[in-house]
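Lecture 7 notes: from sequence to structure.
We start with the chain below.
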Amino acid sequence: MHLRLFVLVVASAPALVGCPDRCTSDADCPGSGEACVDGTCGPGGGGNTSSSSSGSVSASSSRAMTSSMATSASAPSSGSRGSSSGTATSAASLPASSSSLTATSDGPSSSSALGASSSALSSTGSTGPSPASSSMTSTGSSSANSSSSAGGPYHVSGQLVGDAGVGVVIALNGSEQLTLGAAGAFAFTTDLASGATYDVTVVARPPNVACTLQGGSGAVSGADVTAVVITCVPSFGLYASGEGWNDWLVNDGADSLSATGTACTRTLAGTGWDPCFHAGEIRALELRDVPDCVGVMLTDALDAFTWTCDDTGGTVRAISKGLKDGRYLSHLLNFTAPVGWKANSVTALRGADAYPSTPAAWWPNPVVAQFASGNLSQAGTIYVVTEDLAASFNLSADRVGLVIAPGFTLLGRGDTTDPCVETTTSAARAFLWVEGDIDATGDKAALSLPMTSFSVVRGLTTLGGESGDTVYFPTDNGLFVDAALTGSRQGSLWLDGSFGRVRNVTVTESGVSSTGGDAGIYLGANFDDNDVADIWVLRTEGNGIHVGTSSCCAERNVFRRIRVLQAGGNGISISHMRHNVFDDVVVADSGVRTPSTAAGITFGSYVYANVFHRVRSTSNGGAALYRNGYNLVFLDSVLTGSDYEGAGDERGVHAPDGSVFIATTIAHHTGGGVDVEQLMDRMVFMATAIVANGVGESGGISSTGLYLQGDDNRFIDTAITDSETQDVYASQFASNDQFEGILLLTNQATSCYVSSLAISPGITGTCTGAAGTVTFGSAAGSFVGAVSTDDVANASDTNGVGTWAAITDWASFDNTFRVWEAAGATMTSGYGNCRLTGSCRIWDWSLSASDDKLRDVLALPTASDVIVKQWNIGTTQTAAQCTQFSPGGVWNTIYARCESTFLNHAMEVLLDGIGNDNGLCESNETCTVTPNIGAYQGHGTLVQVGTIGAGGAVENVTLLGWDQNGR
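Predicted C-alpha cells for the same chain:
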C-alpha cells in the first residue's frame, strides 16, 4: 500500500528590495533629507520606519514587493486547532450567511458574500492581527487604475488574521493577485485614484479553511485603503453556518448535501418530519490528491462516523453522514486536562493507495470541565463532567451540550424537588445534547427537558428517581437513543411532543416502590407523528407501556420492535390513541402482580383506527387482547396462552368493536378463545385459526372457541377447532352474522350451539347454513407444536423446556411464531401461562409442511375476490367522521356510510412508503398473500407471485408471497 501525506512547503521570504519611493527605513531613501514615513520616502526628519508595533509590513507604493512561496496543490493549512487536508464546500453550491464563518471556494468570491459578524470572528481565538510578517507574490499590473489626481495614486492593504490562512490567494478587482505566506500585513501594488472602486476577493485557499473578509470592497476616498481584514480558521463543516456541534440547519434541499445552509430556528419544531437537520455531525474534508470517488473507501481515525464520497462539484470530498450506531459525542472528546476535542482524520483508500488527511480538531465549540452545580449558560459550549460528581445542572441556554465522561457518574444532590439535569419550564430551549450516566437515587428525577426542541439525548443511563418520571422528554423533533433506565421508584420515561425519534431504549424495574404501579414508559396525548423502535420494557411494577391521558389523542406514530415482558400490570395499556401503526410487538408474562385482571394489551376510551402487525401476546395473566376500542386491524398475530386463574368466563381475546383480524392464531386460552360481545358489531375475521381453547374451565360458555353475541360479523376462511366444549356458541344476542369460505370445525354433533333467540346467526346448531365449505376434524396436527429441541436464539430453554422462575428471555426465538406457554407435549395438554405450575415450554405456531387442513388451502386472490367492510363511526354518519374514526375508510355517498374495499386472502405491506398503512390490501398497494389459515403464512424470502391489474374494485396491486410454506 502506498501512503500519501499532504505536505505544505513554504520558502523563506527575502528582504524587501529598496526603491526611490518605497522604504522600510531612512536608509532606503535616495534623496538628501528624505525620510521613510509610513513606508514612503519623502521630506521629513529621519529615523522613522514603516514597521508597525506588531512587526507587520505596510505597503503603499506602486513598486512591487517580492516573496517566494512554493506550495503543493494539496498543501494543508496550519491553524489554531491543528492542520488538515480535505475538501471544503464551494461558495457557489453553499451560499454563506453573513452572520457566520464562510468557507470560500477555489474561485473568486466577493467580500460582500464573506462578511462575518463579531460573534463568528470570535471563534477564531484571535484578538487582532498576527505579529508575523506576510510573505506574498504579486501577479497583477502595477499600472492598473493609475491616476494623476492630486494626492494619488492610492493603494489597498490590510491584515491576514490566523495562521490557517497561509497559502490563501487573494485578488484586487479580479486582476492583481497575492499569495499570502504568513499571518500579518499584505499590500497590493495596483495604483488607484481617489473615487475608484476596489473589491478584494479570495480566489484560492488551502483545504478545509474558511475565510471571512471585512472592509474588502468600497471606494477610495483620498487616502490609502488599509482596513481590509481577512480572517481564516480551520473549517470542517459542510456549511459555513453549521460549524458548531449543536448547529442545526434548515432541511431545504433535496438532501443534506444540497441545503442552503440557513440556520434552523425553534419555530420550525413540530411542523413536520425533519424540517432541520443536525449539521454538527456532518463534516466535509477535501481529498485533493484523490482523482474521483470510484472505488474509494473512507474511514476516520476515531471510527466515529459513516462516510460518503462526493465528487459531483469537481472536487473530491469525504462527507460524514452522522455518528455510527453505538458511537457518541464522548468518542470525540478528550476528558483529561486540558479537556477539548480529539484530533480526527479521514483516510481514503483507493485500491492500494491510502490518502490520509492531517489530524485536526473538527469543531470550534469551547469544551469546559464542570465541577459544581449551576447554570450551563454559555451557548455553543460543551460542558463535560470528568469525575463522579454530586451536582445538578440547569441547561439555561440554547446549543448547550452536557457530557458525563465514560466511567463517571453524575450523582445529583439528593434533592427530591428538582431533577439532576433540567431546563426550566419558564423558557423554551433548543439544540441541546445530553449524554452519560446519572444516578438519581435520592433526587426527584434524572433528566427533565420540558419546552425543548431539536435536542438529542444519546447514550443515557439512569438509576433511581424518587418521584414523577425519571426522564421527562416532551421534545419536538428530538432524538432519544441508546438509553437504559433502571430502578425508578415511580415511572421511568415520559415521552411527548411530535416528529421525534426514539431508538434502542431499555426500561427495567420501573415503579419499584410505587403504590400506583406507574408505567415503565408513558406516552402523552400530544405524542404525535413519532417513530419509535427497539424498545424493551422489563419487570415493571405497573403497566409496561401506558398511552394517553384524559384528552385526545396520540396519533400517527409508528412503533416497531416493541418488547414488554413481565409487567406487573397490563403489558400495554392504550387509551386516547388513533391512527397509529404497531409492527412486531411482543407482550409476554404480563400481570405478574395482578394475574386475573391484567391483559397483554388492553384498550380504553378513544382508541380507534390503529393497526397491529405481528403481535405476539402470550402467556399473560389476563386476556391476550381486551377491548374497548373499535375499528382496529390485527394482522399476522399470535395471541395465545392466557390464564384467568379461576376468573370465570373470560376469554383470551375480547374483540374490539368493528375490528378486522387477518391471518391470526388464537389458541391455548383457558377461558375460551374469542368473545364477540354484545354490541360488538361488523367485525371481520379472515384466515384466522381459533384452536384448542377452553381446556381447564368447567365447561359451558367458558370453554368455547367462539362466543358470538354481536351483529353483522363475518368469519371468512376460519378454523375453529379443538375447543373444550362448543367451537361456536351463538347467544340470543347474535344476529345477521356470516360464515363464509372454508370453515373447519371439530365435530358436527357437538361443535355448534345456537340460541333459539338468535336472529340469522349464520350457522345452525348442527353446524350447517354456512355460505361456504364446512369440514370437520382436529387441527392439532397442523402446527409444529411443542418444541423438544434446543432453541438456539433463546437463552432460557433446554430442549424447549424451562421453569417460569428461571426464564430471563421471553422474546427471542429461532422464528417469530414461537412463544413460551404452559408445558405440555400435545396440543390439548399445554394451556395458558406457565406461572401457576412453574413449568414452561416453547410452542411453535408455524404450520407443518405435511399439513393439509390449514396450509396452502386458500387461492391466490383475483380482481373479483374483494371484501367490502363497513366501519363503525358513531350514530351520526358523516364523511368527516369517516376520515377520523376509520383506518383509511372511504365515504360512500350513495349509501351514506364509511367503508373499505380490499382484497380477500391478502394483507398490505406496511411502512413501505406505498398506500395508507391500514393493513388492508387496497388499490395501488403492495401486498402479501395469505395461502394459509392462521398467523403463519410461510417463511424465507418474499417473491412476487402475481398482480391485480386495472379495472376492478381493487386494482393495480403487486402480490408477494413467501418462497417456503411449511416447516
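Points to note: Confidence is low (pLDDT under 50) at residues 1-22, 44-149. Residues 879-885 form the longest helix (7 residues).
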